[in-house]
C-alpha cells in the first residue's frame, strides 16, 4: 500500500495545477490573520475613534462576512460560467483590496476595504476548492486537500512572521504583504485551464452511480454546520491571542507573531500527514483526535502561566485544526454531484468564514464577563464535547467509515 501512495503524492506535487492551487490556498490565511500582530498598534493609532476597540477586532474577521454572503453565489457562478476567470479575478481584487489599508485614512474605510477583500477571497476559495474536485480524484484529491491546509499554515507562518516585524515598525505596514498575491498570478494564469464539466471526472464513482443522491444534501448540511463551529473555535486564536498576551503583560507584537507562527507550523506539518492518518483511523477517528488536540490546547491556554506552555497550547490547537479541516473538503467533494460541485464549494467556503466572523462577536463578550481563562475553558469544553461525540460515533459504527 505504501508503495502506491508515494507515486500519487509525487504526481500531485509535480502537477503545476496543484502548485497553483496551493498558492491560492495560502492566500486565505493571509486574508485574515496577517494583520493580527498589528491590532493593538492600530487600536492606538485610531484611538480617537470611539468604536476603535470593536472595529479593530473586526478587521481580522471582516473578510469573513463578505465570504459568507458571496461564496454561495460564487459557487453558482462557477457551476454556470466556469472556474478559471473567477480565480484570476479574485486574485487581482485580492491585491488591490488587501493593500488598501496601507493608505486609507480611518478605521471605517479600512473596514470597508476588508469587506471587499472578503469578496476576493470568496472568488478564490470557491474556485480553488472546486478545481481540486475537477482536476483530481481518489488519493490524489485527499492528498491535495491535506496539502492545501499545509499551504495555508506554512503561508500563514511566513506572512504572520513578516507581519510581526512590520507591525513593530508601523501598524499599517503589514497591509503591504497582500501584494505577494501578484507574484502568484502569472503561474495561475498559465496553468489553470477550464476543466470539462459535461461528463463525470474519470474515477469519480459518486458522479457515475450516486444511488443515494437524495440524501447528500442533509449530510452536506451537517458538514457545513460542523465546519462553521470548528472555525468559530479556531479563530479565537488570531482574534484574541494578542489581547490575551497584552493582558498577561506581554505586549510585544513579536509575542503574538511567534505564537501564531508556532500554531501555523504545527498545523502545516501535521497536515502533510493527513492522507496517511485518515487512511489509518478513518474520518471519525480524525475528528476525535483533532478535536481532542484542540481541547487540550485551549486547556493549556486557560491554566498555564508561562509563554512556553502557551506556545505548546497554540501548537496543539493548530495540529488539531489541521487534522479535521481537510476532511470537510474531501467529504464534501465526495458527496456533491458534479453539476453541484461549485455550489457545494461555495457553501463550504461560506461556512468557514461564517464561523470566523462570529468568533469575536461571541468570544469578546465572554472575555468581558469571565476573562480569558473563562473563555478558554468554555472553548475547550466545546471541543472536548465534539471529540467525545466522534468517539461515541466510532464505538457505534467503527473507526473506518
UniProtKB/TrEMBL annotation:
Record's subcellular location: Cell membrane
Gene3D superfamilies: MFS general substrate transporter like domains (1.20.1250.20)
Domain annotation Major facilitator superfamily (MFS) profile: ranges: 17-398
Residue intervals passing through the bilayer: 57-78, 85-104, 116-137, 149-169, 175-193, 214-234, 254-274, 281-304, 310-333, 345-368, 374-396
A Pfam entry, by short name: MFS_1
CDD domains for this protein: MFS_arabinose_efflux_permease_like
Keyword Ion transport: no
Membrane topology according to the record: Multi-pass membrane protein
Organism encoding this protein: Microvirga arabica
Keywords annotated in UniProt: Cell membrane, Membrane, Signal, Transmembrane, Transmembrane helix
Signal peptide extent: 1-33
Protein name (Swiss-Prot/TrEMBL): MFS transporter
